[in-house]
Each structure stands twice: as structure tokens, then as C-alpha cells.
Amino acid sequence: MFTKKGDSAVLAKLGEAPAQYREIGERLHHIIRDSAPSLEPIVRWGLPFYVKDGKDICYIKPDKDFIAFGFGEVVNPAREEGARMHPVAWTLTSLDAATEAKIRALVEKAVA
After folding, report:
1. Which CATH class is domain 3-111?
2. CA atoms of 46 and 38, how far apart (whole Å)
3. Which of 35, 59, 79, 85 is the most exposed place for a label (fewest CB within 10 A)?
């Protein structure tokens, strides 16, 4: 497994996404870094991951038709008490202020 570390490695990987999703990916990266500066950005298995103490916290997965944002199974801030099904990833086709706020809150909760 080849891993590249740092903001520049992650931004370079996101730069390979189709234009309409490249901007979303870069914005997600900045939201994650602003919300949780303790997370280390890395590129592993061809995907940007954000890790803390060796654990995957969240990731961004660019695709040709969407961009996905998700959390590792170990740390899932979207888990709801009593629910039988828990979301771990979302596909995005655009970002608005409400979605950015929700992502920011989930990232902050994941690292708390």
C-alpha cells in the first residue's frame, strides 16, 4: 500500500476529479481541515483519507458522476441511537451552506 501524506498530495488527487466535482472535493477538504486540524490528510488506495492516531476518520471519493464523502466504520458520528441502519457515506452533486454546516458538524463530532 503506497501512501502519500499532506494537503498537497490530497489536493493533487482531488484535482484529478471531473471539473464539477473537483471544486466540491476541494471545498470538502477545506471544511475537514478547518473543522478538525488534528486530522492528517493522506492519499491511500487512490483516495483522500483523513486520519487520527492511525484510525480512518473520513474520506473523499471522487467519481465521474458524483463525489462521495464518508466516515470509517469505527468512528461514525452519524450513528443514531436505536436505529437499525446507520449512514456512513453520502454522494454529493453540489454543496450549499446547509450541507456544508452538516458536514462540518459531523467532522467535529467525529474527532471530539
Report:
1. alpha beta
2. 22
3. 85
